[in-house]
Design brief:
Helix content: over 70%
Radius of gyration: 16 Å
Number of strands: 0
Largest sheet: none
Low-confidence stretches: none
Oligomer: single chain
Order of helices and strands: HHHHHHHHHH
Mean pLDDT: 84
Number of domains: 1
Strand content: under 5%
């Protein structure tokens, strides 16, 4: 595929994904990872994680008053061992095999979430989700479903801001460990910088929609996102 067409498709996916995540709180990796994996798999997961840094910093700052700091702390605590496990999995398991395992687990979690009563995320649940997210995001770039299910019953601002901060902390940890393990390449940084204008545009436009989502629509969006992501991850690549 021609480089210009590849860049155009990736920029379009990045802009749309930034709008979705800015409005709903999740979904960036779900949109960008499959497109990037198809067109430029050599950019994953590093370029995807780099792009998510400014996006999640923006979303977290925009609604910082609603952040669940206690939850962020426990998720981040679980993130470190999960990230180390994700690096180990990258070395021994194919991405396709990992994606299918994650996809099946996510769909089961969604079905459980549909029928589960309203609950308050406790320390154990937050730390466990941190471990799982560390594994999945470091290995594949996709870490949204576990966090989405954890905060599915929370108000929109709390869900968006808390998940954004959890992502931001986790992405920094993942990028540092990926760099230390020698999995950084210069061209991944260049591609991330080239796609930054599309990400900024999508993020700014999301301001028009994020406050219009009530709790019921937010929960439906979260469960739908997680279910679709599970199906996407089950597709062999």
């Amino acid at each position: 595929m021609e480089p210009l067409l590849t860049f155009t498709l990736l920029a379009l996916a990045t802009g749309v994904a930034a709008f979705i995540q800015g409005a709903v709180g999740i979904g960036f990796a779900l949109v960008v990872a499959p497109v990037m994996g198809l067109l430029r798999p050599d950019l994953l997961p590093v370029a995807l994680l780099i792009l998510m840094l400014p996006l999640n910093a923006y979303v977290g700052l925009r609604e910082r008053d609603a952040i669940d700091w206690r939850g962020v702390g426990w998720v981040s605590l679980g993130r470190l061992p999960g990230t180390l496990a994700g690096l180990g999995i990258l070395a021994v398991v194919s991405t396709n095999g990992l994606n299918q395992l994650i996809g099946a687990s996510t769909i089961l979690a969604v079905l459980a979430g549909v029928f589960a009563p309203v609950f308050q995320p406790g320390r154990g649940a937050c730390a466990t989700v941190g471990v799982v997210t560390g594994v999945t995001e470091t290995a594949t770039g996709v870490g949204g479903p576990p966090l989405a299910l954890l905060y599915q019953h929370k108000p929109g601002p709390e869900l968006r801001a808390t998940i954004a901060l959890c992502f931001l902390v986790g992405e920094i940890i993942s990028l540092i460990l990926l760099a230390l393990s020698g999995q950084f390449q210069l061209h991944q940084w260049f591609w991330a910088l080239a796609l930054l204008p599309a990400l900024i545009l999508g993020s700014v436009i999301s301001r028009l929609a994020h406050h219009r989502l009530d709790a019921r629509r937010m929960r439906i969006s979260v469960l739908s996102f997680a279910f679709i992501s599970g199906l996407v991850l089950l597709i062999p690549r």
